[in-house]
Write a structure and sequence with these properties.
The complex is a heterodimer. By secondary structure, chain A is α+β, with helices and mostly antiparallel strands. Chain A contains two helices and two strands. The radius of gyration of chain B is 17 Å and the shape is globular. Chain B is 54% helix and 10% strand. The chains are: A alpha+beta, B mainly alpha. Chains A and B meet through helix 1, strand 1, helix 2 and strand 2 of A and helix 2, strand 1, strand 2, helix 3 and helix 4 of B. Strand 2 of chain A pairs antiparallel with strand 1 of chain B, so a sheet runs across the interface.
Chain lengths: 63, 200
């Protein structure tokens, strides 16, 4: 599977969960290839989709 | 590629100054540094009446922080989820959180692109891909970054720092709790010159 296909798979899963946009904090834009950033993005998203994240804080009330 | 127009500079800096006034009213304090990003987060939700949750993603290898420091999910129900890399130091955590909060404040349909690979291609390009106009979701990255810097280490403070005979970037980063990389970038003559017509 290419990094593009991997990211597309995660993208479809996010859409199913009601995500309508993703803002990425790319640490060194212009210095890192698209494939490397896509791979890092997929690693992040796969962890999030698998629930492997720790709640830190919340701003605002529950909706 | 990240490009910005005068119109978008005004949008992001006007938002930064508007939020700074609200932050000062909220804190009822004489302005000081480092600015409190957690208080700022509460000011944002009060202003927008949105829900913002912050998470640390557990299983991301350390070296990935040099590529991707975090990401923010925008949900259909109007809530936002900010997800941070687990190995960020305090300055990077504050900066990424503040930048993502400005993404929340500045969010609009024109800044979104749910084709994630195409979006990352645009962000990592070194030259404009579309001769018909700038890529607005890429512009929004610069808008959020410039607004975050104006909140954490404003232009007026940068002028004071630059007036000194010697500048120790690490010392400056420590005072304002901003990553040294962004201290150096935003103190550069080129960025200061570019921002001068827009900043207070």
């Amino acid at each position: 599977m290419t990094e593009k296909e991997r990211l597309e798979k995660n993208q479809e899963e996010l859409k199913k969960r009601g995500v309508k946009d993703v803002k990425f904090f790319v640490t060194n834009p212009g210095e890192t290839s698209t494939n490397k950033v896509a791979a890092a993005a997929s690693t992040f998203l796969e962890a999030i989709l698998a629930g492997k994240r720790t709640f830190k804080k919340q701003f605002g009330a529950n909706k | 590629m990240r490009q910005i127009t005068g119109k978008h500079m005004n949008i992001c800096l006007n938002k930064a100054y508007e939020m700074l006034e609200k932050y000062k009213t909220w804190t009822k304090a004489i302005d000081g540094f480092p600015r409190d990003v957690d208080v700022f987060g509460n000011v944002c939700v009060r202003d927008l009446e949105v829900n913002i949750k912050v998470f640390v993603v557990d299983v991301v290898p350390e070296e990935i922080k040099e590529i991707l420091g975090g990401l923010c999910l925008v949900n259909e129900d109007g809530s936002f989820e900010i997800n941070l890399h687990p190995d960020l130091n305090e300055c990077w955590q504050r900066f990424i959180l503040c930048k993502e909060l400005f993404h929340v404040l500045l969010d609009a349909q024109e800044y979104r692109n749910m084709d994630l690979y195409a979006h990352l291609e645009q962000l990592t390009l070194l030259m404009p891909a579309d001769e018909d106009g700038i890529y607005l979701p890429g512009t929004s990255e610069l808008m959020a970054e410039i607004a975050a810097m104006e909140f954490l280490f404003p232009y007026s403070e940068r002028l004071k720092v630059k007036s000194k005979s010697t500048i120790n970037l690490l010392d400056v980063a420590t005072v304002y709790r901003v990553p040294q990389k962004f201290v150096a970038l935003y103190l550069s003559d080129a960025v200061m010159h570019f921002l001068a017509p827009f900043c207070n």
